[in-house]
Amino acid sequence: MTFIPYLSVIGFLPDIFLPWLVYVALRRGQVEATLYGFGVGFLQDLTAMKFLGLAALSKTICSFVAGYFFNDNTTEQTLGSYRFVLIVLLCSFVNDVVYFTIFFQGVEAPLISRVLQFSIASSIYTGVISLLPMFAFSQKYSTSWVQ
C-alpha cells in the first residue's frame, strides 16, 4: 500500500489487486473469488479508514462477476490470452462504478459524469497493468495471447 501512490497517472490509480482477484475467479470459481474479494476489500477499507465497507462491497461484487467466467476446461487459455485483460477491464469497471457511485454521493457535480470519468480512466489503467500477468501466463502455459 505504500508504493501504490507512486503509480498515479493524472490522479488515477490502477487497482493492482483486481487482476489477482480475476485470477482467483478463473482458477477456483465464483464462491472462492467472492470470499477473497470481500477479504481484500475489507483490508483496503481498514487501511483507508474512510467509508468502511465500501471497498469490501465493490470488490465482492466484481469478484462475483469475474466468477461467471470460470470454466475448468479453458482456464489456462483464458489466463494467457487477451480474454484475461477483457475480464479484468469488465470487472474493474463494475468495481469502480459501484465504488464511485456511493463515494460521490452528495458531490455537487453531476454524479453520472463523475462516476463514468473515474471508472473508465481507472479501468483502462487497471487493464494496462493486467497485460503483465497476461504475458506471464502466456509464457507459463505456452499459449498465444491472441487466442
What features would you describe in this structure?
The structure is a single chain. Helix content is 68%, strand content 0%. It is built from seven helices and no strands. The chain has one domain (13-140). The chain has 147 residues and is mainly α. It has helices spanning 18-28, 30-48, 54-67, 75-79, 82-103, 111-129, 131-140. The radius of gyration is 15 Å and the shape is globular.
Any descriptors?
147 residues; mainly alpha; 68% helix
Average per-residue pLDDT, rounded, comes to 86
Main pleated-sheet profile = none
Estimate what percentage of residues fall within beta strands.
Answer: under 5%
Distance between the termini: 34 Å
Find the structural class using helix and strand composition. mainly alpha
Helix content: 55-70%
**Count of individual beta strands:** 0
